[in-house]
Write a structure and sequence with these properties.
The protein has helices spanning about 25-45, 55-65, 75-100, 110-115, 135-145, 180-185, 200-210, 220-230; strands at about 10-15, 50-55, 125, 150-155, 160, 175, 175-180, 215-220, 235-240. The chain has about 240 residues and is α/β, with parallel strands linked by helices.
Length: about 240
């Protein structure tokens, strides 16, 4: 259990992993979506801003897999993945508009335009931006543009580990870690089209550059996500600025 200081400026940024949309778990996904909408309503009702960058998940992986039969250029494959992230972002956007939230009416294609949308909207949702940047990196850049000192990485694992726990049962998990240590774990190379990791190396590099701390947690449990956003102790990894 770790503790992150709440953001003074009421703008919170989340990188919402596409894996959390979980099409193979339709019943649980419906419950999860309902809880996510409740959380968004709660934040908006308290006068706070919420930025959500949605990943591509299965939609991106399947689209890229299909495209690889005829497309070899990584840039083009990344572009296909980005469109999948924007499709997922549109699903969440429309879901929140349906219940009356003040959400951006168009999906922005840059973090600069997304940041400007906070002047008119309480909740801003977006997907990817340019090839070579995962939505983790986009979320960190949005945090920078909004003046938010931290970004929550909500994924399908509970912590940052020193190695892949699926391959190494003895992998060590971290409750707290520094950005420089995280960079040693993730490496420096950008991920290929359709690949995923607990935190994208480019996002870590940007967080170091911008001085933005991260919270890495299991977004399948939205109470954990809300704890982190509220500045309460949360189950996950707090990644501090060196």
């Amino acid at each position: 259990m770790v503790y992150v200081q709440p953001v003074i400026m009421p703008t919170h940024i989340i990188a919402l992993g596409g894996s959390l949309l979980r099409p193979e778990e339709a019943e649980m996904r419906g419950i999860w979506f309902g809880q996510l909408r409740q959380m968004a309503v709660h934040f908006e009702g308290n006068g706070r801003k919420l930025g959500i960058v949605v990943g591509g998940g299965l939609a991106a992986r399947e689209a890229i897999k299909l495209a690889k039969e005829t497309v070899t250029e990584s840039y083009r494959l990344d572009s296909i993945g980005i469109m999948a992230t924007r499709l997922n972002a549109s699903i969440l956007q429309q879901s929140l508009i349906e219940i009356g939230c003040n959400v951006n009416s168009e999906i922005p294609e840059t973090t600069a335009s997304a940041s400007e949308m906070f002047e008119s909207y309480d909740i801003v949702i977006m997907g990817g931006t340019i090839p070579g940047h995962t939505t983790d990196a986009v979320a960190v850049e949005l945090a920078r543009d909004c003046g938010s000192p931290h970004c929550v990485i909500a994924t399908n694992v509970s912590h940052v580990y020193d190695s892949d726990p699926r391959k190494n049962p003895a992998a060590k998990k971290f409750d707290e870690i520094t950005l420089s240590k995280l960079a040693q774990i993730t490496g420096k190379d950008a991920q290929g089209p359709g690949e995923s990791a607990v935190v994208d190396p480019i996002a870590v590099k940007r967080a170091i550059e911008f001085g933005i701390r991260l919270a890495v947690l299991d977004g399948r449990n939205l109470s954990i996500l809300e704890d982190a956003l509220e500045g309460r102790p949360f189950v996950g990894t707090l990644v501090k600025v060196d």
